[in-house]
């Protein structure tokens, strides 16, 4: 009997060690409306580079019911069904519906989470959305509880909402994930970390956006020390390593320098950098835009991250080397895996070399 128990323990340990790590690929479906080489649709997705495909975004109405934010794209163009169809390329792929996001705000989610009737509307509409479309689960991206119009009760109400979702999903085997703010100041304000961790399959930690032009100076979007501090904080507060998914941004935060001759990290800036040809948003450049810019690029060893500049334009971003550093840290901490925000800003066309350089680097470190 003793030998049998030892054998079972070894087999169980082997299963833990060999379990495939998560590579969660967020897809901002609105990139379909971008022009030229920035246009992105399902034909641009390599399903074998992802264990999860997170279809972004759905929203909610004032009653708590989940709703499409672009019915023409989701249903008339058939983007949802095409996303589900990627399972023909990768039978192990999980396709998740993502609800929330920055533009959805927090107020409606705060109201829904704190009202039993609205929570039931949310849960029932989630079940309908998943069942009717063939999704494998839900990713709730509430940005953020107890912030942006929320209140202190959001913290406990979020736990209640996740517990009720978990119970409702269990009979169907649906997965439940969340996307969360990373740093201690944000996370400590918004989450009962140990309690939410018990309710979900995995936690996508958004370990980026650590510096913005509103800071008045240039800074790194995702410096290594900041992501390590963030993950270590989540671990210290009771989040198990095997549920934490490390976020990688396939984009950079850009700045307009106050003085082009002062082009180092921490130099004064007068605002956001110029909009990119594809993404079209000031202060934000996709890696597929950055890699074609041919700006002067420096890899900062202290932050394990690159930056680039040209004239009065300055951008901090991730490249293959910095992503390798991040994945080595994820492996050292035995995290569940990594996620990328988002597919459509990696160099998915291979205009600067091999297609999907950042996503491939994640896979090379975690899966291959």
Question: How is the secondary structure organized here?
Answer:
Blueprint: H1 2-18, E1 22-28, E2 52-60, E3 66-68, H2 71-76, H3 79-85, E4 94-100, H4 107-113, H5 116-133, E5 137-141, H6 154-169, E6 175-181, H7 184-190, H8 193-197, E7 202-206, H9 224-236, E8 244-249, E9 251-257, E10 269-272, E11 284-286, H10 287-293, E12 296-300, E13 305-310, E14 313-316, H11 320-332, E15 337-341, H12 357-366
Parallel strand pairs: 1-2, 1-15, 2-4, 4-5, 5-6, 6-7, 7-8, 8-15
Antiparallel strand pairs: 2-3, 9-10, 9-11, 9-14, 12-13, 13-14
Physical arrangement of strands within the biggest beta sheet: 1-2-4-5-6-7-8-15
Would you identify the CATH architecture? Answer: Alpha-Beta Barrel
CATH class reads: Alpha Beta
- Are there runs of 5+ residues with pLDDT below 50, and where? 1-18
The shape is globular
Order of helices and strands: HEEEHHEHHEHEHHEHEEEEHEEEHEH
Total separate domains: 1
End-to-end separation: 37 Å
Helix count from the secondary structure assignment? 12
> CATH homologous superfamily, by name?
Glycosidases
The main β sheet shows up as:
8 strands, parallel, barrel
The number of distinct β-strands equals: 15
